[in-house]
Amino acid sequence: MTPPNGDTVSDTFSKEEKAAMRAAAAEAKAAKAGADLEAACLAAIAELSGTDKELAETFHQLVTTHTSLAAKTWYGMPAYANNDGKVVTFFQSAAKFKVRYATIGFQPDAKLDEGTFWPTSFAVTQLTAADQKQLVELLKRAVG
Hints:
Layout: H1 9-12, H2 15-32, H3 37-46, H4 50-66, E1 70-74, E2 77-81, E3 87-92, E4 102-106, E5 121-124, H5 129-143
Antiparallel strand pairs: 1-2, 2-3, 3-4, 4-5
Helix pairs in contact: 4-5
């Protein structure tokens, strides 16, 4: 059925969004089949290039060194899940949605609540030593 505004599903979602949805469906199927989720995450990072790849590699190293989160993919992006399999944090490349910055995001299971207002995603163009230190603190808080 076509919505009242005349859009169709193919008009509603971008090519990149459709690819992400296909990736999510494939990830769910692979997880049910017992696939190596960390290998899928590392493969997703390996497919990146330039600054996106450098940032994703650094993020992966920080998450796996400083938390108990398990690597996997989420909508085709490197992501890290808690013991319940829920994504806590993820990396989204700048190239994926053709923007000028990568994104490091946190999902609802991240324990970052700070009063009534707190950030859940960060634009990233580089990760300096100071940035990495701050990110490690956020990751540790997110895991609780």
